[in-house]
Amino acid sequence: MLETIKDLLHFFPGLESFALMSPEAALVRIALICVGFALVYLGYKRVLDPLLMVPMGIGISMVNAGILLMPALEAGMGKEIGTMFVNPLVSTVAEQVDAFQVYFLQPIYTLTFANGLIACLVFMGIGSITDLDFFISNPRLSMLLAIPAELGTILTFPIATAMGFTPSEAAAIAVIGGADGPMVLFASLQLARHLFVPITIVAYIYLSIIYAGYPFLIKAIIQKKMRGQSMNVSMIKEVSPGEKLAFSVVTGTLLCLLFPVAAPLFASFFLGVAVKESNLVRFIRVSDNVILSGSTLFLGFTLGCLLSANVVMDPKMLKLIILGFIALFLSGLGGLFGGVVAYKVSGGKINPLIGIAGVSCLPTTAKVAHKCANEANPNAFILPFAIGPSIAGVITTAIITACYITRVSHMPF
């Protein structure tokens, strides 16, 4: 009987790999498969972002199912448990060439993730669907609302260092507070490449939960009367496409000059905006339907395929989950505080909910603000106003990220 079971396990390598694992690792692997199923279901039901969560869930469930015995990375080391999906540990040119022939996602990971290109592609797509009208109409208000919405990005850094992370690791984790997925991916690759997978996974799952979570925070803090405050559309002056194009070119160039570390992100975002405002119809469709959608799909799928049991079993994972929540919670509080101040200073003319849109996650938090305002007052239409702080949030997060990358790595710790 025992021999029959061994023969059966040998015939099905995936089952055999379970037998070779520790009980704890096997249980985590089963749990991750279930998590993958749950993410697919929640994406399908539109509870979470389907474009990101469905491929991520498929990746998580199938990569943890498809584990088998493989030749070890280093020659002469026998065999090790691995997958045919991707190996993020390869480093030398020879290992990369070998990996390209074995792991089917390796070219995508090496040529778009390891160098941050995937983040730039997502930013380009976001730029092509971004409307700059309110931001250009009132840049001062937009930026003033975005600054307090970076509270989590700032305060999470000392909290993370107090929890035992190095300054570079803490900075990469703190960027989660900016609620900007591509920025988190870019920062973690620059500051803490060894934690790139768990940081990015935690960030993207939390960013998907924002749509369901922030309304509870809003309703707990902001009174219904304030939530339903209408805003006069005449506050948004008409901005011509030429003015938006000029603004994009000048602002993008200036930001690249001041913060060259984040120049690839600035250039990608403002290129997308320029394509939109130049009315290059064919390229607008490509940017939105192909670049943004395609890169987001592969982003979710590849991240899911990187989330194996050994990543989750890292003792730092629980800390990352806690810090990710702290970062986004603090940023949400900061954004609402800024919105309430704007409401008071304006004599009630500004809906305070546009403050939480400064937690960029463009355009998700702007939609959250509009949805909550519309529930309190069906006549409250604040989406165009919320887009301004959301765009400003992208810029402030990029600036803070650039400061972390250029300064933290040189701090004397």
User: Which structural class matches the secondary elements?
Assistant: mainly alpha
The residue-averaged pLDDT reads 86
Helix content: 55-70%
What is the count of helical runs?
Answer: 21
Q: Given the C-alpha coordinates, what overall shape results?
A: globular
Question: What keywords describe this structure?
Answer:
single chain; 413 residues; 2 domains; two-stranded antiparallel sheet; 21 helices
Care to describe what's here?
It is a single chain. Helix content is 70%, strand content 2%. It has a two-stranded antiparallel sheet with strand order 1-2. The model has no long low-confidence stretch (mean pLDDT 86). The protein is built from 21 helices and two strands. The chain has helices spanning 2-11, 13-20, 23-44, 50-65, 93-100, 106-113, 117-127, 133-137, 139-146, 151-162, 167-174, 181-191, 196-221, 224-227, 241-258, 263-277, 281-306, 309-312, 316-345, 364-376, 383-407, and strands spanning 67-71, 79-83. It starts with a helix and ends in a 6-residue tail after the last helix. By secondary structure, it is mainly α.
